[in-house]
Amino acid sequence: MAFLYFRRMTDAKVVAEKLLQVNAVKLNPENPFTWASGWKSPIYCDNRKVLSFPFIRDYIKSELCNVVFEKFPEAELLAGVATAGIAWGAMIADQLKLPYVYVRPIPKEHGLGNQIEGYYEQGQKVVVIEDLVSTGKSSLQVIDFLKKAGLGIAGRFSILLMASLLPAKCSKRQVLLTILLLIIQLSSSLQPKSKLSRLVNRKFC
Question: Strands 77-81 and 100-103, how do they pair?
Answer without folding.
Answer: parallel
